[in-house]
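Q: Give me the 3D complex with magnesium ion.
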Amino acid sequence: MIRVPAGGRRDVSGDLSSGPMQTLPPPRPRLVIFDLDGVVYRGSQAVPGAAGLVAALRAVGAGVRFATNNSMATRAAYVERLASHGIEASADEIVTSTSATIEHLREHAPAVSSIVALGATGMLEELLAAGFRAVSAGEAAPPEWDGEALPEAYDAVVVGLDRSFDYRRLGVAAAAIRAGAQFIATNADLRYPTPHGFLPGAGTIVAAVQAASGVEPLVIGKPQPGMFQAILTMGGVGPAEALVIGDNPDADIPAARRAGISSVLVLTGVADAALADGLDGDRRPDWIAADPAAVLDLLDLRVS
Ligand SMILES: [Mg+2]
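A: Here is the predicted complex, encoded as structure tokens.
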């Protein structure tokens, strides 16, 4: 790994004590995939330097994508959120675990048309906008439902983070799966970060559905490679021409590695320098940068 200090040019004579060094900067990527929380913003605060890095990449003709495991908001909502942090982006440049799930279904399960959605309103809206006959788990059974067979069969159950999750929704999702629906998890994150601490993530709901149905889900989001693979396919870009910038060595970095893409770990999110130094295996990034501004130096994009 090579370390790039905050706000300064890459210093190859600096602290490079952490294992085998990769002393060359990555080749100028054609496509850069940004994680959002911890890279572009933290909660409601912009991460300094992120907007400048996106602008510099666009100026040299590189493509950018923004990839989040969050399943709850629509891509249109992310366009607005990025604009509030000074980043112009189109909905096509945003990939959520919900939109990646939709891409997966189109590509690999074209027969799926009816879906039970156990997730947030934004997830249901995206599924409906994509043309699926999707119904919320809260609506898929009559009010007096008490475990009988559901009124209709469904092709798939898609699970994301559902802040209105309850016993009835769990029962309906499990019943649909036991009746033959495919079980697809948008992501399996166990923790959901808030500005005040952690709440249970989608993965805790996925685990409950798995326990109740006895069926293992197909997981789409990071650390599985499916989201990044879909981005490469849609962009017509090979893994060697792309770069992932992420803050999470348990999600972004292994997903990049499994998709064959080089990665930069930035220390503006969940990982600090001490944690970064101890990473190995799938969690080990190719480069560590203190912040997004330092990635400008890594890619030699800084205009001086
Ligand atoms: Mg993150």
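A quick observation: Confidence is low (pLDDT under 50) at residues 7-21.
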